[in-house]
Amino acid sequence: MLLMIPGPVQLHDRIIRAMARQMIGHRTREFSEILEYCTEVLKELFGTKHDVFIISGSGTAGLESAISCFSNVKRITCIDNGKFGDRLGKIAERYTEVDVVKFEWGRSIEIDEVERSLAEGSDAIAFVHNETSTGILNPAKEIAKIAKEYDALVFMDAITSVGGDYVEMDDWGVDVAVVGSQKCIGAPPGLCAVAVSERAWEFYNERCPFYLDLEAYRKKLNDLQTPYTPAIPLFFALHEALKIIEEEGIENRIRRHRELSEFVRRWVVESGLELFPELNEFSKYSNTVTAIKMPRGVSDGELRGEMRKFGILISGGQEHLKGKIFRVGVMGNVTFRDVLTTLSCLERILVKRGVVKPVLSGLI
Amino acid sequence: MLLMIPGPVQLHDRIIRAMARQMIGHRTREFSEILEYCTEVLKELFGTKHDVFIISGSGTAGLESAISCFSNVKRITCIDNGKFGDRLGKIAERYTEVDVVKFEWGRSIEIDEVERSLAEGSDAIAFVHNETSTGILNPAKEIAKIAKEYDALVFMDAITSVGGDYVEMDDWGVDVAVVGSQKCIGAPPGLCAVAVSERAWEFYNERCPFYLDLEAYRKKLNDLQTPYTPAIPLFFALHEALKIIEEEGIENRIRRHRELSEFVRRWVVESGLELFPELNEFSKYSNTVTAIKMPRGVSDGELRGEMRKFGILISGGQEHLKGKIFRVGVMGNVTFRDVLTTLSCLERILVKRGVVKPVLSGLI
């Protein structure tokens, strides 16, 4: 099955082979070298000179580690314009007071409303950079800028942007950011990484979960180790995935993600379908996932079911968007051929039902 | 390198190959079937008819999930007679009041002292079944029995016993138990499982960490899914590891662990080395790891360094036991040949230094 969902992504052959090996001890030089290499490349991808910690757990574990470890704040503004923004709020409320600034899913963030929440007494803010549930790239730089005016600590869910789009934590003034392994980095799921500015440690809360306590990770990283047994096969895979990224070059990789996603969007618009996101002057379409309104006369079950018959997995909408949108992920080591195959099949299914025009061959 | 450490263990070829495949979607029937199979076999290994939840994270994540989710208790007695007992206390103190009942590492648990702590006002107890830091099998059944007299909730760290020794949660009256994937189950590290009695839910604390909240796992398991993206390659591996266990038969597997560990202990004693644990009427030697006193005139660095030259990894002591003991793990799909190879090399190194007698060939 070709995975064209917003993670887990299709693995490069080299990454599959990297996992197919015997275990090693995790307190050995060999493991330390892998950990060191991964940490250094991830710093580049996050755009930070500061700490990066790799945790054996999903992206959600990384987000909780980030928020809980630096939860010594009075109140955190959580921006919710999609499922993952909503999740940030749910995680944060276990640790501190939360003010959720909510926008209808699919709509863009209004900076004024964010500022109002900050002005009302938040000393921290959390937002999703690339909201895969709706296909929107939220304005990270602008949010961090306004947060700076209020001296607020900035948390960014960069789970689906790091490795596929520009992330410049230090330049933008983001204090804590999180990435997942199974998205634009192109590795299998099961690891996440948290990048932490120096300033964030002023907000360190020792009552964070034991397993997610970055202070323990920091201490052990001095010996190039992890505090608890790491998921070794996933480290083998991440190591190879990051080597592939270095070989491709980060700029080239981001360009590829952008061009492929632009191609998907061009097909959507020209074929007569509608993109789901409502943009404003700050937001952009995601360059790693495209959310498309479900055309009338086709059900989610039919569309995705027929795609599965073609051997391709795409995503539906989440929560109340189920049945209203479908989503095509373009993440990791995805190729033009993968995108073309996907759109060909989509076009075939939708043309047959008379809901789109056949335009694909003219776009290539 | 042959891994003869108490986890991660050497992988069976079939398990290595099981990981070497393309990703699948985690919201698919294929993944659900894997999750269902793994959950059912784990129930057998835990000796429970109740819930088992698999978490993407190390054994420590599983312990924290167990304790934090059911931390609606007044006070928890944590038994510490080794590094992992100590860890239980450190995790528990983030969530509730803790009374640590401490024994010198390497000594056995005195049930009377445990009872005193319970009588003084604990309504929960946590202990390590198989303490790998010292090579002791703690008396799970006796601890659970005394806990029952005080109606206390019973947490058991079974990370290194499940799959290698008898664990009968329901029979013994253990409420919550945890296993790690990379120990006696024989899979790679990165997954853990938490088994939960019905009664434990009476102590459910909704303020547990979001990522480790078993209520979310319980809801999603109804649809045979996990709440967050699972570490898919590790599920492929666990699935294969559990198939191997089913093929071997649980009884046979436990017998193999016992016989191999007995063989290690016989060699230790006959060669003139000393076992580290001090047993009492309740405790036993671990059947999955053997802790041996470091003989005079040999340093930890020398012994383990020379073993590494032979291509074999064994463990040293942890924390203050560093340099005082060394440990040989016999876990998972380990064979008699692996044990023999290990003891041959140990004997060669130690005979050369004149600290043991060559007895191995006479024992085979």
Fraction of residues in H or I helices of chain A: 40-55%
**How would you name the oligomeric state of the polypeptide chains in this document?**
homodimer
Give me the CATH fold name of the largest domain in chain A: Aspartate Aminotransferase, domain 2
| Biggest sheet features of chain A | 7 strands, mixed
Low-confidence stretches of chain A: none
Please write the string of helix (H) and strand (E) elements of chain A.
EHHEHEHEHEEEHEHEEHHHEEHEEEHH
Instruction: Identify the CATH architecture of the largest domain in chain A.
Output: 3-Layer(aba) Sandwich
From the alpha carbons, calculate the radius of gyration of chain A and give it in angstroms: 20 Å
| Tally of strands of chain A | 15
Greatest interface by residues involved? A-B, 50 and 50 residues
Distance between the termini of chain A: 24 Å
Question: What's the CATH superfamily of the largest domain in chain A, by name?
Answer: Type I PLP-dependent aspartate aminotransferase-like (Major domain)
Helix/strand/pairing category of chain A: alpha/beta
The DSSP helix count of chain A reads 13
Strand percentage of chain A lies at: 15-25%
Biggest sheet strand line-up of chain A: 2-10-9-8-5-3-4
Number of domains of chain A: 2
Mean pLDDT across the residues of chain A is: 98
Topology, element by element:
The structure is a homodimer of 364-residue chains.
Chain A: E1 2-3, H1 13-19, H2 29-46, E2 51-56, H3 59-69, E3 75-80, H4 83-92, E4 97-102, H5 111-119, E5 124-128, E6 130-131, E7 136-137, H6 140-149, E8 153-157, H7 169-172, E9 176-180, E10 191-196, H8 214-221, H9 232-248, H10 250-271, E11 284-285, E12 289-293, H11 300-309, E13 312-313, E14 315-316, E15 325-329, H12 336-352, H13 360-363
Parallel strand pairs in A: 1-13, 3-4, 3-5, 5-8, 8-9
Antiparallel strand pairs in A: 2-10, 6-7, 7-11, 9-10, 12-15, 14-15
Helix pairs in contact in A: 1-9, 2-9, 5-6, 10-12
